[in-house]
Each structure stands twice: as structure tokens, then as C-alpha cells.
């Protein structure tokens, strides 16, 4: 076996009920390289990572570490072989501190096997410097944003000093600034001999950080190429088996009048005097760094968090919103950034999740649910949103990440909203599903729905938005027309570094 290969998967087969997730795939990771693994949702990428991380066992095929055949029994066994994995879905213990999560089961001890808390916090502060984070290591993880939690998950893996670090959508909640820091640290660790498997739907990242790329499609190995030998269009074609054109779709040329206003909205210590308007059929993008207050603003508008001052108007009417139920009644829907923890009922079926936001629509006499109406609605929705599931009764937790995201979107579109707020709408979603989600959003605008889109993906913000607001430190600090916005201008505005001309 080639001594330059540190990790190899050979002829891997893995079946789940009703589906072959991996069909004889192969994968080779060389020492000291960043090897990207790409494919649409359901292509088998995450399944292979679960096998390499010791979570799943293959039905057939072999795994080799530095030329030695291994049967990885569990994640601990994988870590003993030098393999650490950062999964797309976070696995942190919410009630424990940052320090306790990063060094779980590896806390420094003093006499009588007591935890040396002083040393633990010191080591945590040192590793937090990787991302220039100034956070008290004693802070409970549950108090962190999704992006901050993702950083903690990455630092936890790095702290194990792995030979191989597998990153599954590591930047899905990170801003461009935080992504640059991650890449800097990947390069630093690569120079120290760490090898990386990098899974991402963001092809720009792949071409920036990877040495080679392997493509999966429908559970099968397609090809491996040197990054220098391919371009984005070629990789996409290998992924989907066809060319993808006009990713972001055509803009609504008939944007209407202002009909939704947020006026001087404030939440103590979080955001201050936020004012903006939304037009019918408009997509209003909100950009900014983590901690800028974007998600908190969305949650306040939807009634998930109180605001201390200000008002919200729809069609000239001042709304009284104290709960999500109030918002839904007024025609406001909110697609959360965290679909698994806050958006979906994972143990329920697609059919059940779909009607959860407003079940009253499906009640007939005697407060009984109209089962035939629900089934008809679910089948129609599945077809409309191109949700890949063997049946509408399939548990949502068993669907791919991209299909889960489309389920979440279909839930809120199903209430026929007047205003739709989407927070990181394509997080962890492949290029094909992204295009489908953008089309759904475009179709909604054509029917007069106004959309507020929060996104840390700047190309997405620029490609989808008709108008862009930038938040920093809990305030709106900039506004750009779509044709005047650039990545440089938005980043400059979001960071407060340099000067930029903005709309007033």
C-alpha cells in the first residue's frame, strides 16, 4: 500500500431500510492534504464519515489507517486511531460549560482524581485563541449562538491532536470572517502534519482550501480530481449529472409598495432602534457578523423573544405580537437557522410536521382532524417542494439535511404567509437543493410575499436579495441596493473596518 495514504476506505457498502446509502465506494486521504468530499444531499458523504468516525459499521468493505486494516467499533476507537470528526449536527452538551465540552472525559486532574479547574480553564482560553474568541470558558454552551457552538465543536476536535480531522459542513453557520480564521488554522495544522477530509456544499471554499476533491453521487463513487485540474462548473456537473444554470433565479420585476414596517425596535443589550420596511414581492437580505443581533431581531418580530421598545406594522396596522401564535395569526412565518433543535419535530412524520404550525386549517366537525385533507395536502406539498421521501409517513429525522430544510420551508409556506423570515435558509444544503429553495422563494415573491432573509453566505445575500441591510453591534449600519452591493462593501460595513458609501 502507498505509504503516503493515511486513511483509506475500500469498497464500502452500507444499507439502511429501503435505501443503499453507499454502494461500493472508495476514498483515499493522503498525508498532509486537505481532501474535499462533495455530492448532493443523500449522496453518501455523511454516511461514509460516520463509518470513518466509528458511528456506523459498513455492511462490507474495509477501512485502513496508515496501511493497517481496522474495524472501528465506536467513536472512541476512531479517536484512538487518530481520527476526529466534527459532524454537521452539533453534539455538545448544552448545560455544560465551553471548557467541559472541549475537554470532555479529558479534564486535567490533580490529587485524588479531582478536576483541576484552574488548569482546565487556562487550557480552554489557550485553544479559544485559535478563533480569536474572548469568551469566559465557564459559559454554558446553551448561552452561545449556533455559530459559536460550531466553533466550540471544531475546537473540541482540534484539542484531541488528531492525525486525521474530518470536517462535515464546518462553515455552515460561520461568517466569512470566521471562515477565514478556520482556513488559517487548517493551513497551520496541515503544516504540522494533520490531514483533513473537508465536506462542504460551498464550492468556493473547496477551491480555496482543498488539494483534491472526490465526488459522490447517489451513494456511488464518481471521480477524484486535483483541484488545479477542474473548475466549479465541472464539479457541479459531476455531482448532479447535469449542468446547473442560473443558480439564484430571476428577480421579481414587479416589486410592490411598502407594506411591512419595523419601527425603532429595541431589545435591551441586544439590538437598538431597528427600523426598516419591506415591499411586496421583495427579498430583503440582512448581513452581518455573528453577534450582530440578526437572529435575535427575527425572533423578536416572530414573538419568540420580547422587545422593549418600538412597533411592527403590517398594511398600516400596528401588530400586537407576544408569541409565535400571534405572529402566525397575523401572517408572519419564521424559518429558524437551527432546523433540528428549533424548527422540526424530528420524531414525527413529514405529514405531521407539515401541519404543525397551524392545525386548525385541517379540523372538521367535533374538533376532529380531516385525515384525507391532510394526506392530500402533504402529497401535493411533497411534489411541489420536490421532497425526496419514500412516503409522507416517513420520520423527518430519517431524511437528508437538504430534504429536512425543504420540509421546514414547506411547513411555513403552507400557512400562506404575508411575510416570511428565513434565517440561514440553505445551511447544510447541496447545490441542487439550494437552487430549488431559491426558486421556491422567487415563486413566493411573485405571489406578493415579502421575504426577509438572514444569511452569513455573502454570495447568497448578493445573489438573492433585492436590497441589503447590514447589522453591526445590534444596529443597522448600512443599506445597499442590489446593483450597488459588493462583497467588499458589505464586509467593510459589517466589520466597521475602513470606509464605505452607503444608502441613507
Provide tags for this entry.
single chain; alpha/beta; Rossmann fold; six-stranded mixed sheet
Describe the structure.
- By secondary structure, the protein is of the alpha/beta class.
- Helices cover 32% and strands 26% of the residues.
- It has a 6-stranded mixed beta sheet with strand order 6-7-8-3-9-10, sandwiched between helices.
- It is globular, with a radius of gyration of 23 Å.
Give the CATH class of the largest domain: Alpha Beta
Number of strand segments: 22
CATH fold-type name of the largest domain: Rossmann fold
CATH superfamily of the largest domain: P-loop containing nucleotide triphosphate hydrolases
Distance linking N and C termini:
64 Å
Q: Strand arrangement, largest sheet? A: 6-7-8-3-9-10
Backbone structural class: alpha/beta
Determine the number of helices (DSSP H or I, runs of at least 4 residues): 17
Q: Note poorly predicted spans.
A: none
Helix residue percentage: 25-40%
Task: Tell me the radius of gyration.
Answer: 23 Å
Mean pLDDT: 89
* Overall outline: globular
The total tally of domains equals 2
Task: Put the structure in a nutshell.
With 504 residues, the chain is an alpha/beta fold. The protein is 32% helix and 26% strand. It has two domains: 5-240, 3-Layer(aba) Sandwich (Rossmann fold); 258-345 and 417-495, Rossmann fold.
Amino acid at each position: 500500500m502507498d505509504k503516503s495514504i493515511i486513511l483509506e476506505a475500500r469498497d464500502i457498502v452500507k444499507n439502511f431500510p429501503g435505501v443503499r446509502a453507499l454502494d461500493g465506494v472508495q476514498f483515499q486521504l493522503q498525508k498532509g492534504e486537505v481532501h474535499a468530499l462533495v455530492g448532493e444531499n443523500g449522496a453518501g458523504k455523511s454516511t461514509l464519515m460516520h463509518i470513518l468516525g466509528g458511528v456506523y459499521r459498513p455492511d462490507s468493505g474495509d477501512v485502513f489507517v496508515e496501511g493497517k486494516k481496522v474495524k472501528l467499533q465506536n467513536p472512541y476507537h476512531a479517536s484512538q486511531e487518530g481520527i476526529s470528526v466534527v459532524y454537521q449536527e452539533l453534539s455538545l452538551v448544552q448545560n455544560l460549560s465551553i471548557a467541559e465540552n472541549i475537554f470532555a472525559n479529558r479534564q486535567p486532574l490533580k490529587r485524588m482524581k479531582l478536576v483541576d479547574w484552574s488548569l482546565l480553564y487556562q487550557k480552554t482560553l489557550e485553544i479559544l485563541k485559535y478563533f480569536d474568541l474572548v469568551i469566559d470558558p465557564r459559559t454554558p454552551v446553551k448561552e452561545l449562538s449556533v455559530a459559536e457552538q460550531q466553533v466550540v465543536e471544531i475546537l473540541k476536535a482540534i484539542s484531541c491532536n488528531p492525525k486525521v480531522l474530518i470536517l462535515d459542513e464546518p462553515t455552515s453557520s460561520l461568517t466569512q470572517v470566521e471562515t477565514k480564521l478556520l482556513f488559517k488554522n487548517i493551513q497551520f495544522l496541515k503544516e504540522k502534519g494533520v490531514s483533513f477530509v473537508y465536506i462542504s456544499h460551498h464550492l468556493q471554499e473547496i477551491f480555496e482550501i482543498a488539494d483534491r476533491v472526490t465526488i459522490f453521487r447517489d451513494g456511488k463513487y464518481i471521480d477524484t480530481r486535483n483541484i488545479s485540474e477542474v473548475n466549479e462548473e465541472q464539479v457541479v456537473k459531476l455531482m448532479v449529472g447535469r449542468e446547473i444554470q442560473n443558480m439564484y433565479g430571476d428577480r421579481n420585476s414587479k416589486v410592490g409598495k411598502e407594506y411591512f414596517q419595523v419601527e425603532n425596535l429595541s431589545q435591551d443589550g441586544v439590538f437598538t432602534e431597528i427600523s426598516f420596511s419591506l415591499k411586496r414581492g421583495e427579498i430583503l437580505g440582512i448581513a452581518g457578523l455573528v453577534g450582530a443581533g440578526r437572529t435575535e431581531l427575527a425572533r423578536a418580530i416572530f414573538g419568540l423573544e420580547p422587545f422593549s421598545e418600538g412597533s411592527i406594522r403590517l398594511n398600516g396596522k400596528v401588530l400586537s405580537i407576544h408569541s409565535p401564535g400571534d405572529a402566525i395569526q397575523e401572517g408572519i412565518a419564521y424559518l429558524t437557522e437551527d432546523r433540528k433543535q428549533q424548527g422540526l419535530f424530528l420524531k414525527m412524520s413529514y405529514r405531521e410536521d407539515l401541519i404543525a404550525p397551524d392545525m386548525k386549517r385541517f379540523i372538521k366537525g367535533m374538533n376532529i382532524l380531516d385525515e384525507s385533507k391532510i394526506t392530500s395536502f402533504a402529497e401535493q406539498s411533497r411534489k411541489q417542494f420536490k421532497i425526496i421521501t419514500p412516503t409522507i409517513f416517513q420520520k423527518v429525522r430519517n431524511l437528508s439535511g437538504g430534504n429536512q430544510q425543504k420540509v421546514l420551508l414547506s411547513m411555513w409556506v403552507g400557512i400562506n404567509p404575508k411575510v416570511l423570515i428565513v434565517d440561514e435558509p440553505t445551511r447544510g444544503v447541496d447545490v441542487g437543493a439550494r437552487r430549488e429553495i431559491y426558486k421556491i422563494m422567487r415563486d413566493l415573491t411573485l405571489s406578493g410575499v415579502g421575504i426577509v432573509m438572514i444569511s452569513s453566505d455573502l454570495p447568497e445575500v448578493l445573489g438573492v436579495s433585492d436590497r441589503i441591510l447590514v447589522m453591526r453591534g445590534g444596529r443597522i449600519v448600512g443599506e445597499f441596493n442590489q446593483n450597488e452591493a459588493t462583497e467588499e462593501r458589505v464586509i467593510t460595513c459589517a466589520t466597521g473596518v475602513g470606509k464605505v458609501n452607503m444608502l441613507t
